[in-house]
Amino acid sequence: MTKSVGRRLFLQGTLAGSMATCGLSASRGAEVPASASEPRRQVLFLWLAGGASQFEMWDPKPHRPTGGPFRSIPTNVPGVHFCELMPRLAQRMHRLTVIRSLSTGISEHEQAADLMSTGRPKEPALVYPEIGVVLAKELATGRSPLPDYVSVFRTSEGRRKAGVGFLGAAHTPVHLERSSRPENIERPAGMSEDRFAERESLRAQLSRGFLAGRAGRDGAEQYEAVHGRVAGLMDSAGLFDIEHEPERDRERYGRTPFGRHCLLARRLLAAGVPVVKVARGFWDSHHDNFESHRELVTDFDRVFSVLLDDLAERGMLERTLVLVLSEFGRTPKINKDVGRDHYAAAWSCALAGAGTRPGALHGVTDANGIEVADGKVSAGDLTATIYRAAGLDLGQHYQVGLRPVPITIEGSKPVAEVLT
Amino acid sequence: MPDKPKPPEPVRKIAAPEIQYALALSRDGSRCFLGGAAGTVFDIDLAGSQPKADPRWHEHSYVAALAMLEGEVEQPALVTARYDGSIAWHDPQDTRLIRRIERAHAGWIRELIVLPGGKLLATAGDDMLVKIWDATSGKSLQYFAGHATETPQGYVSALYTIAATPDGQALASADRAGEVRLWSLADGTESGRFRAADFYTFDPEKRDRSLGGIRRVRFSPDGVKLAIAGIGAVTNVDGFVGPARIEIWDWKSGQRLAVLQDNHQGVLNDVLWSADGSEVVAAGGGDGGGVILGWKVDGKEPLFKVKLDGHVQRLARPVGGQLVAAGHGGLTLWDPTTFPPLKPS
Lengths: 420, 345
Fold this sequence. Notes:
The complex is a heterodimer.
Chain A lengths: L1 H19 L21 E7 L23 E3 L6 E3 L3 H4 L5 E7 L6 H10 L12 H9 L9 E4 L21 E3 L16 H19 L6 H18 L11 H7 L3 H15 L3 E6 L8 H25 L6 E6 L3 E2 L11 E2 L3 E7 L7 E2 L1 E2 L6 E3 L4 H12 L6 E4 L2 E4 L14
Parallel strand pairs in A: 1-7, 1-8, 4-12, 5-6, 5-7
Antiparallel strand pairs in A: 2-3, 4-11, 8-11, 9-10, 13-14, 15-16
Chain B lengths: L11 E14 L5 E6 L3 E6 L8 E5 L4 E7 L7 E6 L4 E4 L6 E5 L7 E6 L5 E6 L3 E6 L5 E6 L13 E6 L5 E6 L3 E6 L4 E7 L4 E4 L3 E6 L1 E6 L5 E7 L11 E8 L4 E11 L1 E7 L5 E7 L4 E7 L7 E5 L3 E5 L6 E12 L11
Antiparallel strand pairs in B: 1-2, 1-28, 2-3, 3-4, 5-6, 6-7, 7-8, 9-10, 10-11, 11-12, 13-14, 14-15, 15-16, 17-18, 19-20, 20-21, 21-22, 23-24, 24-25, 25-26, 27-28
């Protein structure tokens, strides 16, 4: 029965992951080190899959051979200009933090996405968890019936499931790919609520009996915890339905998929989901780059501006770290197909909210945007910046078997200028 | 089935830097102006023995379209339309700026044409307006509004192209969502509309973007038919993967008369009719590289296909002269007699 496959697979995968994780001692520094008076931080990733152009967004080079047709416009932070495709965000630079000096080296989609998602190059001996998975593990309370991490990736291009790596499948996010609500979270057709409760009661009783008095029961306990999560997910089905949002908010976010997904993200964050990722594909503009970015950035500018305002109005922005990131940027050279190709030597990202310094700009590229002229930031540095902004202790590590694995790659440093 | 002719070679290549989006010919076809991504307007003496692109002046924006005013106006001028929304009149001899209108459109200007009779100009811009201008004074005379600013899925649209009937009585304009609107110049009203839906691709999962659009419309010499150029169903967003496509419409009745599609993967940016209206030649580029294609209007298979290195943005054919294609890296000139089905004018 396909009806139950999704839930069963989720449980099977989680159990396998739990077992696989048994070698992980979870030796770590602490719970989130934010002070007790501060609300627990949350993180929202806006992932622009395929590689958004820094020239048409955060680092315009008008009137340069590499600049393309768009003008730059001043933001509300003196001296900082954006591409003219972002007039709304230009008026919200006071809420943003921009890094213009990412230099990450890898310009092939999969490898670059791995790098930017984990903050490290791949290693044959150890599979690292993605940043969002680490954050979800560290920021989750462990008591919530909600998922720790929801990833919305509805478009097929660049779609990837968040890698849990050595943290194990217990930390697998809820991936929303075919629908904006999890699949198969309804009770099986024909099963009454009472019947379902009876079955769950029996399962729980058997599980408790199995666990009683057994040593080395981490995996089984995780299995039990995941059952609780699934039950929570089933009870939270309405959370994934943005039709519950007031019409005003639905109109505000607009009718494009990115707008609807960002509204869903805000809804999930407001309900307490620690980490949410919204991916928007089709930025890989080898042809017709300017038409592509005219369409994509215009939508991004409108939706992200609404999202920032909404988070701020609800008092959520100060506890929510928002990241806008791709796997790489795009080439300064405009190719013969009026496109820009992959480029990782000098590109940009943006942050907002918790732990970041509003209005800050870090890094400088040269006049044509070919090289970083000052303030180079690696993937590891950005990861450290993200973790610090989210309130994690950069000194902590995971004990994987006999190997202590620091949460950031050795030698990486957070970008102090963009952090509070 | 007749043998396909051997692919022709260009008569001449004239280099100009970057991408040339705009092309204007003098009425006698001896002189050509180019403009594009570099913002430089180039002057080419096509009648010379060794024509080359001479930079004449620099516009501080992409040049999207050029139009020559001569004959019917006292002051000959080359009019430039830019992505920054401005239009400007320059003296083509001494390059003197005659007039500039800074905010002709609130958005990129995509097209600029001289209307039949030579005394009026028409422009189309991404404010989704068609505007009519006095060619001599630059006075704004009339505008036509109606194209939606957003595609049906809520993304920003674009108004790529306009064309005028040979009698100058009607205009056609077309947008990114595949909508064609028809305007009556005499009474300033919309006279009709239809949707050429196959020029627009949207798929919420595999291609969550509003793709394609009608890139050029051109009326037939008798004014009865409208050729529409663009790309068919897009199957890969990154590289303009979709069939090069032309449709021929009876614009008054809103009936599609013919579909001329090739398996060359790319968008057709421009289309020209033969003088007798029996054939069209179109050009563009995409995943399959640059291309020039020709069809009999009542045919199915292309009569010829010439592959090029980069995209072609504009085509022109001076009376009795060569076919002129502007795009990546400059201009190529073609001898139409090497395109057997394409009859010289």
